[in-house]
Give the backbone structure.
Amino acid sequence: MLKIPFVDLAWQHQVVADDVRTALDSLMSTSAYILGPQVHDFEEEFAEYCGVEYCIGVANGTEALTLAMRALHIGPNDEVLVPTNSFIASASAVLAAGASPVFVDVEEESFLIDLTSAEAALTEHTKAIMPVHLYGRLVNPTEVQDFAEKHGLLIIEDAAQAHGAAFDGERIGARSKVAATSFYPGKNLGAYGDAGAVLTNDLELAEKVRMLRDHGSPKKYVHEILGYNSRLDAIQAAVLRIKLRHLDEWNAHRQHAAAYYYELLASEERVRRPLPAGSENVWHIYPLRVDAAARDTILRTMETDGVGVGIHYPIPIHQQPAMVSTTKTTVSLRVSEAIAPELLSLPIFPGITEQQQDFVVASLRNAL
Ligand SMILES: *Cc1c(COP(=O)(O)O)cnc(C)c1O
């Protein structure tokens, strides 16, 4: 049993447990398990929270990305620019839509998509760019928009790690054609199982995704297009509605914890801290860079101390066995390859205490 887990979902559950039980009892008394009022209400509430017109609840974040691309007619012969420092789903969703991911590098400072690298990876087949708001920090929306306009590309945001994050006050989905997010339990807004959503300001696109998630069906037993069974589960929607009410407070707790780590590690020259990113970063992950030769020993030592640590991500997507044979790499991915063996993520979650963080940092220093 870890003294300090990497994430503490039990803490969150205990905050909402009574409300969740009441909501589930009421759901069960109505038997509205598929779509229905809970899903509808969550979609409205989350769209409003993000400041976006439409939210369509789907089965998980990976399918949210795939459905968004299918709705935009991104498919065979199309290329989508994807940062290689991300979770594999960013790229596998492109393949699932029938298109090809083209990997691009990340910036040395932010570990987020590097638009210079994206420019070098353009071809006549490039149809879209996927900024991934990794770790809870939004990729600069103005820069992405300018880039996309200049090159005639669509923007599909992977916002799985950025619920509540903002850039100049704008949240996920505000500027792009479409954003996709995940409510995997460990995400900032997490369900009690798999769940995801597509966000857009475009009514036609919203209706297309709504059909795609439900067997391509605009009405029962009429199937206009070939779709999926990828609906957001009503039980998950009921849980998400309750947790959404706590999201800002929980994100504020993450921000406080990130600031405290930043301060605790100020004099530690053996680690490189992520940039302090102000009040708009929601710190899904707190990544550090350490010496590559020592990283695995540090990890094991901290785990022995009872500290849950992670690596986000140990293998860039283009080097994953599942990707090597099916994708091609055309530009230098030097930064992603250099940081992968150096990354180390410290525990960060709503409910983490300063005493726990003191212990984490003491364990890290000892391991260094
Ligand atoms: C979690 C995650 C996904 C996939 O979401 P699932 O709900 O697990 O399918 C996609 N992209 C990123 C960056 C993620 O962190």
In short: Residues 60-62, 86-87, 89-90, 132, 158, 160-161, 182, 184, 194, 196 surround pyridoxal-5'-phosphate (CB under 6 Å). The first strand starts at residue 54 and ends at 58. The mean pLDDT is 96.
